[in-house]
């Protein structure tokens, strides 16, 4: 008689645990959200949005400075005047 009660309790506990897992365990919205974006803190493959914005700002600044250097070379203001009789080092 006691084995039957123990077996009934085990089955009842197993059914309770299974129903609890079914209700609260793996929800499809959590899994689909994870599959849709497994790394939500990253914007690129290795950068967060802040790091990506910093990289963009640095690159924009560098491009502007290089463009001004190129413009100075095109209109020849990056070299000293050759009209001076004294030697001017380059």
Describe the structure in your own words:
The chain is an all-alpha fold. It has 2 domains: 1-38; 41-90. 66% of the residues lie in helices and 0% in strands. It has helices spanning 2-25, 28-36, 49-74. The longest helix is centred in the last third of the chain and has 26 residues, at 49-74. It is rod-shaped and about 115 Å long. It starts with a helix and ends in a 16-residue tail after the last helix. The model has no long low-confidence stretch (mean pLDDT 79).
What structural keywords apply?
90 residues; mainly alpha; 2 domains; rod-shaped
Number of strands: 0
The oligomeric status of these chains comes to single chain
Number of domains: 2
- Give the SSE order as H and E letters: HHH
Helix content: 55-70%
Terminus-to-terminus distance:
106 Å
**Per the principal axes of the C-alpha atoms, what is the gross shape?**
rod-shaped
Structural class: mainly alpha
Q: pLDDT under 50 segments (min length 5)?
A: none
Secondary structure topology:
Elements: H1 2-25, H2 28-36, H3 49-74
Structure described in brief:
The protein is mainly alpha-helical. Helices cover 66% and strands 0% of the residues.
